[in-house]
Amino acid sequence: MLNMAEGLARLGALAASPVTARLGAAFADAGFELAIVGGPVRDALLGRVTHDLDYTTNARPDDILKIVKPMATATWDIGRAFGTIGAKVDGEQVEITTYRADSYDGATRKPTVAFGDDLESDLKRRDFTVNAMALRVPGPSLVDPGGGVEDLVTGILRTPIDARISFGDDPLRMLRAARFAAQLGFEVAPDTRAAITELRETIRIVSLERIQGELVRLLQTDAPGRGIRILVESGLMAEFLPEVPALRLEVDEHHHHKDVYEHSLTVLAQAIELENERHPDAAPDVTLRLAALLHDIGKPATRTLEPGGGVSFHHHDLKGARLARKRLQALRFDGDTIGSVTQLIEQHLRFFGYAEGAWTDSAVRRYVRDAGPELERLHILTRADVTTRNKRKAARLAGAYDDIERRIGELAAQEELDAIRPELDGNKIQEVLGIRPGREVGEAYRFLLDLRLDEGVLGADEAEERLRKWWSARA
């Protein structure tokens, strides 16, 4: 809940910071306005941590440079065409942008850049009222033409102008609505949600890289499920990630199964909770969160209604991995992320065989080998995938996974399990067997790897003797 007295005190402290005070005085002496704008003002009112300060001014880029150069250790003007000048002042990086009065053609989200002279007009062209507040400096005084403070108090996200016009200008703002709703824990105003539904197809003019960027930012929030629901319910998610709304499978009175969509959102929430418990100081793990959201996307394509009312999803793990790879490639994710997510989806069911009966040491080694560097993420995903309301079953599965992690730890201590490899490498195999590089070296290597997995560490001498016996029997 926003406490106005405390929020205003934080705004005062923000305006009095050394860098802001210095910049404010310099712009005022030069006859120009200056204001802190957007997220820093919102976060100060909410008591959230503010990292970077963004400023806006009626000064043009050339004037901004003239004012900041004497006090800056470095300046850059890569954003000059859009009115933005960057500088490093007293060790802090700042960006100062000329008031904007852009226009859009509706065919692309690239505006025709035009500079403005009025702060309130600049604020009204921004995405949401809670981001359309400014703090004039020196002074300070709060400028809030759209009622952003009231929306912070009530926890509402809405646009400063008609949502259809705002989203028509820049459709990416529809995705930002979902992200900010999740980030701030706010509700999206009814007319704003209606505009998202109405204009959802316009997201197609936005580059896939931009869409991917907003999806990543949504997944980095503490509770992305709120934003995902907005995207799915409005139909916007179907435009770029249709596999998620497809999880809402129909359930008839004869064939009952778990709600896959709700299950997936629960798995995502539980994965984030476990991620924070196990790695409290780490950055949000977007790869893990993607895998949690998408781990069951193979179910719609593999659902079979069985006689007697049962439902099966045979090989949905493999199907889901293929679907995820294709979709993440389309969204321009990098190869490492795609590889990790698809591997986790493909392997997320592997553990449940362990729950039915303890594995041999060999099976545990293979589990670790197959997971490779994704083992810790697989631990979290597999635990998060237990959403049963049956407390006894949940306790049994949790106990089984505790057991497999304990065994992995014991074997790792004994055998350096995280670096499983045969005692002899390819060069040594060629030397021992007197063969040249080729298919036979690979076969010999796989023989030694299976030996390592089945029996643990043998030592180089024993491995060489076993290799010679295998080669002799093979010949």
TrEMBL record:
Protein known as: Poly(A) polymerase
Keyword Chaperone carried by entry: no
Cofactor: Mg(2+)
Enzyme class: transferase
Entry annotated with the keyword Lipid metabolism: no
UniProt keywords, alphabetically: ATP-binding, Magnesium, Metal-binding, Nucleotide-binding, Nucleotidyltransferase, RNA repair, RNA-binding, Transferase, tRNA processing
GO MF annotations, alphabetized: ATP binding; metal ion binding; poly(A) RNA polymerase activity; RNA binding
InterPro entries: HD/PDEase_dom (IPR003607), HD_domain (IPR006674), HDIG_dom (IPR006675), NT_sf (IPR043519), PolA_pol_head_dom (IPR002646), PolyA_RNA-bd (IPR032828), tRNA_adenylyltransferase (IPR014065), tRNA_CCA-adding_enzyme (IPR050124)
Lineage, highest ranks first: Bacteria, Bacillati, Actinomycetota, Actinomycetes, Micrococcales
GO BP annotations, alphabetical order: RNA repair; tRNA processing
Natural source organism: Microbacterium invictum
